[in-house]
């Protein structure tokens, strides 16, 4: 017996209901989450599409990885150091993080596939433009525009995949492959930067990246399907302007301004003789806080917010974002930036040697991704996040305590492996939770917040750690990092790594309290319907609870839900 409303109706009773009621008008068909999406013509088509969209995450790390290896060469070419040098890396992540929310809204307004296409095209143009620069400020501008181009595609790509796949093991695997684009892109960028910098010049690495993304721009036309959200609607230039004008452009302005001012204040502190005691630094930082507060206030008042505040009410979302912020402050803002500087400036490694030193990181990342994709539906997300932060803390501690004359294998090797395991575990768990915790029409916005946090965290981490390192050098009466004694420079780098230790500790605190359970269980996302719609009907909720019984299969559950809906419609017609 299955209780429905005030009475009890058996399975046989359902069969007597008028069969003329169209089932398709009541509920959409249940789709097997493990089947290939119908938008793909073949497995090859699906694989190529996933590869193309994975290149959206690789775009960021490939560009950053190439520049990461070339930072010492760029410092010598442009004759810069300290805060000016940090802008070479942070300008990309700053503009990428500051504009992601805007591009996430544009993805939903103009079409996600269109935005991926525009992103790849613009990155190709600005990567080529950056290769011709001769002044570091112009180079920083070109890097910032590359960051804007890279910001346009990840959230759109996540939105496409989130629309194509239902929660389940297949989606977990696809998202793990998608996330693998980050470490593979970093390795690809590091190899490109190492080979080009040592054997050709730093400009050639941008030539190569522009060629790669030009080819993928063409592939988007043929292999990425329309996701049904404005992609299949033809838009004129006027309609595009109207839709863009309908976005929260003032909110975008406030968010970009706040991010730029925060990073600028930290960078200014690193290059100022008095550091954070400089009045102009404090004034700029205070203005940044006011602008950030104005942005949050504006988002609660505007009808079409860039960052819908209701997203933050999703279970575990706020703490997950806080964890990602501090985790990536340590990973991108400290470990990634200062590790390459340590290898080349302290250990006198060549660009190729530095690239070789980073190879274990890629291997460890692929192993971590393989493991996490297989256990997300078994192990609670909170446990994986705690493990990730333990690895992060261990990696930063190893670097902070590393003596100059110790072997690479003793401390650098485990630190390099642990830090990327931490990043991959956190990235996968939080990314999948971000997509699953919000409705489909807000997945791009949620993904935009996720990528904004991770990118801005890296930029802020570089700026703040650079200010600490510069403060240590000032105490040692050193004005420039050129021809500095290695023990003094190593001490300054250690100070930056201690910033990473502090960030990891805060991330650990967040991981202990975050509410993220097992991901990808079919029963928790049976039909992928709106939860409010399901729970509004006692009879449908009863049928869903019937599915929780292990003795009942999905086919029977499907028939009961359809029949329950027929009963309600039949009673409504009678009334």
What does this structure look like?
The chain is mainly α. The protein has two domains: 2-30 and 527-574, no CATH class; 43-523, Growth Hormone, Chain: A (Up-down Bundle). Helix content is 75%, strand content 1%. It contains 22 helices and two strands. The chain has a two-stranded antiparallel sheet. Strand 1 and strand 2 (7-9) form a beta hairpin. Helix 4 (82-110) runs parallel beside helix 6 and helix 15 runs parallel beside helix 17 (408-436). The longest helix has 36 residues, at 43-78. The radius of gyration is 26 Å and the shape is globular.
Features of the shown structure:
single chain; 575 residues; mainly alpha; Growth Hormone, Chain: A; 2 domains; two-stranded antiparallel sheet; 22 helices; 75% helix; disordered N terminus; disordered C terminus
What is the overall pLDDT average?
78
Strand content: under 5%
Order of adjacent strands in the largest pleated sheet? 1-2
Describe the oligomeric state of these chains in a short phrase. Answer: single chain
Total strands: the figure is 2
- CATH superfamily of the largest domain, called what? MFS general substrate transporter like domains
- What percentage of residues falls in helices of 4 or more residues? over 70%
Order of helices and strands: EEHHHHHHHHHHHHHHHHHHHHHH
Distance between the termini: 25 Å
Q: Uncertain segments of ≥5 residues (pLDDT<50)?
A: 1-9, 17-29, 522-575
Task: Work out the helix count.
Answer: 22
Which class of secondary structure composition applies to the elements?
mainly alpha
